[in-house]
Amino acid sequence: MSEHDDDGLLDAVAALDPVVQSSVPDGSSPTARRLLEEIMSDTLTRSRPAAPPDPDPTPRRWRRLAAAAAAVAVAATATATMWPGATPSASASVSAAIAATLDAADGSARYTLVAEIGPATGPEGGDAALELRAEGVIADGDLSLTSRFGPSAEPEAMSTEELRLVDGDVYLRSTDLGGGWEVAEGRAGPADPLGFFDELGEIATFDEVGSDSIAGEPVTVYRADGARWEETDALSAAFVAFGVALFAGDVAPGDDPPVLELAVDDEGIVRRLDVTGEQGDDRLDLVVEVFDLGADLQVDVPEGAGLS
Amino acid sequence: MNPVVSDDRGPDVRFAELFDRAYRPLLAYSRRRVDAATADDVVAEVFSIAWRRRDELPVADEVPWLYGVARNVIRNHQRSGRRSERLDARLRLVRDEPEVGPERSSALAEALVRLRPDDREVITLVAWEGLSHGEAAVALGCSTNAVGIRMHRARSSLRALLDEIEAEGARKGSSGGGHEAHGPDGEPRRTERRPR
Hints:
The complex is a heterodimer. By secondary structure, chain A is α+β, with helices and mostly antiparallel strands. Chain A is built from 6 helices and 11 strands. In chain A, a hairpin with a 2-residue loop joins β2 (about 130-140) and β3 (about 140-150). The two termini of chain A are about 35 Å apart. By secondary structure, chain B is mostly helical. Chain B has helices spanning about 10-30, 35-50, 60-80, 85-95, 105-115, 115-125, 135-140, 145-175. Chains A and B meet through α1, α2, α3 and β3 of A and α1, α2, α3, α4 and α5 of B.
């Protein structure tokens, strides 16, 4: 034992195992051999069983992934809530920046996504923060997304997953499983991560809260406090919008609304989205940076990906 | 990670080899969650399903896939109420055995019982079945990264529950009371700690 078991907790749980596996009959036991013979003599039932309802978790996983990929195109579905203290000029600046960003991208861009998940009140018991790092390529509705996830302090322990959405087909590969590319069931709609900005512009009002720099370039930071959102989980919505929707189901709305900031450069282009929130004992911080807007990008079907 | 099986063998041969390899761990998995007789039924049902779908078995992930099937079969058994003996009860037996170990083990068993079922499942898949995060992802039908997040949260919850139970024990010890493991109805108390 075990994976990232710094505090020995998993070892302690393992010690509670109520079954000693070596005492369990193996496949060569008489009972097992009888069962095998009985099962393999059943040649008449090659069709899928009526029960249990979903005995194969793998297709369910792929269905979920396909749904996640499809959700990329959907982005957030938030409800606008006006905030009386919002600065009209700031909101107008953000709206203009979002429109300019979408025009500049014209369906193609690259982005990076970094999400940190850790204890909200500092380190506890050797429990290191977790980190998700993803790189995305958007190309006319197609999407390539490579994500690495694991404890921040142990880069070698990170697992990598790759997703490609090409012409509605979703291809997935996990280095942790060591397998090749697999094709998800069903088809997904076109990817449109930057559409999340557009949704933001329509539902939120902004304040200018300061300046910063990205890669040496100055940016102006605008904040849309989550308190202005009604029944909206900006964190989940952002995860969904940028293709890492696998996590959205695990990122339920926190006790306090998330804080959402957009950074706009001197040319009026949105360069960064930063969403911070808390859920229970966890703090989540999601940062997305976009670049290469309008570049000539292409996402290809992975080599060796056979249709299932 | 299970070895990748070459595809040039027929599905029947693959199935027989898979049966030999997976019978014991699947039976152990089932016995950890239901009584021995039901565990036999579960394993038989799992392999029957696998046999009927032997042409579709995921080559590299056959055993984790079988865990996923077993999980669903056990759920069905528990839903239908047939001879269901839940993990809670199994753990209760472990906890009540005097040879289970020091006080911390007893408290940890109690914490495991109180843990949300989904959190308990991901922790025990790793701690008891020895699955990697990737294999647990196949069994649970989610992504490897999602397993990582679930593990992180499950561990945090388990640790918090353990602290809570040990604090309760210390308070009761100082007031002369014993460690109360069960509610008034004889069932283990549950505290769903993390609203979602």
